């Protein structure tokens, strides 16, 4: 998903080029049947004209697809294909966000759907059912934090994800609402590998919102390391 996100956000590719790449990724992923028979050659041919434009993470997309365990891999491909298709639609409409409903659709398209994939991954891996609606909200929260953090860069490339008449305060409120509701759910969930997985992005999202509210553009590396060390200490047996 990071691989296709690099296409959506690319500074130099035209909208037509992005739409073509994203559409072809959908078609290729939708036609795969197994890790063993995965069609790497079609991805190589698709990316060949863009080798000097696309980052390594994108050029190696077919490799990442086949790291998924064979049983669950088709679900990962399906989610990635669906996201690529939605990204294509947003590229073609110029990322037109005019209302909160538009923002809800966009944040679902590129992040809320990741929450649903996580639900399926943990149902398969740990036989635990995660609340699907709240998983969508978690994705929305993380994406809206990214929108706040990347505001200047987005405007420089001609993209505005803020609904009409919204400023930073409204976007921060939107992010906090989605994040807080997911936090309340996590308080009720027994400790498991899912909570381990989401605790880092949760903590970073909260800290980023606080930093932005204080007028800082982003967290410093020292801030990030402090958060990670605090989480590690909480997970260490015998810690207070």
Give a verbal description of the structure.
It contains twelve helices and no strands. Helix 2 (15-30) runs antiparallel to helix 6 (73-92) and helix 8 runs antiparallel to helix 10 (168-188). The radius of gyration is 19 Å and the shape is globular. The protein is mostly helical. The chain has a domain at 1-69. The model has no long low-confidence stretch (mean pLDDT 93). 70% of the residues lie in helices and 0% in strands. The two termini are 37 Å apart.
Q: In short, what is this structure?
A:
By secondary structure, the protein is mainly alpha-helical. Helix content is 70%, strand content 0%.
Entry keywords:
globular; 240 residues
Class of secondary structure makeup: mainly alpha
Indicate the proportion of strand residues.
under 5%
Which stretches of 5+ consecutive residues score pLDDT under 50? none
Per the principal axes of the C-alpha atoms, what is the gross shape?
globular
- E-strand count: 0
In round numbers, the mean pLDDT is 93
Number of helices: 12
Q: List the secondary-structure elements in sequence, H or E.
A: HHHHHHHHHHHH
Helix content: over 70%
Question: Main sheet?
Answer: none
Distance between the termini: 37 Å
Radius of gyration over C-alpha positions, nearest whole angstrom = 19 Å
């Amino acid at each position: 998903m990071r691989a296709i996100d690099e296409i959506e956000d690319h500074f130099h590719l035209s909208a037509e080029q992005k739409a073509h790449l994203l559409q072809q990724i959908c078609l290729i992923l939708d036609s795969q049947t197994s890790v063993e028979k995965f069609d790497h050659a079609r991805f190589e041919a698709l990316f060949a004209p863009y080798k000097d434009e696309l980052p390594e993470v994108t050029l190696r997309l077919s490799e990442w697809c086949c790291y998924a365990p064979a049983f669950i891999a088709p679900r990962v491909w399906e989610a990635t294909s669906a996201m690529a298709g939605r990204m294509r639609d947003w590229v073609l409409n110029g990322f037109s966000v005019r209302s909160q409903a538009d923002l809800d659709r966009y944040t679902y398209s590129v992040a809320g759907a990741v929450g649903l994939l996580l639900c399926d991954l943990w149902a398969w891996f740990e036989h635990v059912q995660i609340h699907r609606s709240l998983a969508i909200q978690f994705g929305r929260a993380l994406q809206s934090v990214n929108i706040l953090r990347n505001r200047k860069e987005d405007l420089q490339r001609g993209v505005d994800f803020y609904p009409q008449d919204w400023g930073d305060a409204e976007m921060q409120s939107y992010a906090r609402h989605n994040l807080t509701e997911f936090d309340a759910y996590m308080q009720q969930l027994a400790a498991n590998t899912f909570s381990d997985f989401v605790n880092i992005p949760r903590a970073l999202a909260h800290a980023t919102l606080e930093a932005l509210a204080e007028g800082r553009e982003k967290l410093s590396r020292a801030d990030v390391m402090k958060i990670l060390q605090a989480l590690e200490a909480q997970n260490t047996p015998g810690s207070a």
